[in-house]
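Assemble and predict.
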Amino acid sequence: MKTVVNSWNEWDPLRHVIVGRADGCCIPPPEPASDPKIPLDSDMRGVHGPRSQETVDRANEQLDAFAAMLEKRGIRVDRPDPIDFNRAIATPDWSHGSMFGCQPPRDVLLTVGSEMLEATMSYRSRWFEYLCYRPLLKRFWDEDPNMRHEAAPKPRLTDASYKPDYLSDDITVEERLEMVAAKDFVTTEAEPLFDAADVLRFGRDLFVQHGFTTNLTGIEWLRRHFPDHRVHALNFPGDPYPIHIDASFTPLRPGLVLNNPERRLPDEQREVFNRNGWEIVDAARPAHNSPPPLCYSSVWLSMNVLVLDPKTVCVEASEVHQMDQIDRLGLEVVPVPFRDAYAFGGGLHCATADVRREGDCEDYFPAG
Ligand code: DAV
């Protein structure tokens, strides 16, 4: 099947997708952007180096089974090419002890229509991650004459991009919640920064989380880069570590979004949804009280679902409450065992990047 790059939203029928790999994944040494994300009581504090082969193998088993299930449903699946992540990297501005991995392609690649855009990223350890996707992007470029391969300006990520006072262990979670509510995040506005997983595509409208991994300058860059889109900045106060939008806000089909009840969208940011007849419902509680060991993400990966079409949603197989809610909302649930892959960078939405969905760019917010 020849490649066609075309995907405008998170829900139209999926035809071609990238699924990550856990091979060689490392826990990178601390860096300014990651420190505040690791809670004081986390088992990840002070730990870095390659993840154990046993955990890599278990994650890969679930990633491979997920990919095989998608293929059985007629969806083409491609996989990235891991590089040696356990080696030091440097630019003229900084050096760092290791890279991260290539499990969450969603963080790196943003597909908007026929364009695949490499995000700036905001961690030094993830600066070179795009290299894992270059073989695929070259192939798509060769096979699809309309494909646009773009890369956002590589950030310098000097100390000027991070607030030094954000690193203090003396800041309590309560204080962090106040800082987040005041839109005081770890990154400065020195240069455009965004991770692709902070962006949700709703046809003509792009909704982008302003938080630890995406700054306002990054959102302004996206606005200028996509002049035919409306680009909206969203905030989810209630999350002390706002990294990526896809465990806070999850569109299931046109007109329906799940919102994390601990991270409710502020009233003024709801207006555009209300004006246009969209319903925002509280997501079900996660089935687990804590994330699996050595996991960056919260228990809210329960909401990190992959929509196959406006009637069919992949949900992690142990997330019984989330499966039940989506079933009651009238969609078919495809349970996917995936908890062994969580520590490698997230859930089913994180682990994928769209290449092709049916459908065109539509305006789901005609009232503006
Ligand atoms: O709730 O920890 C995880 C999102 C990963 N892409 C969270 C956000």
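The helical segments are 53-72, 105-108, 134-143, 173-181, 216-225, 267-275, 320-328.
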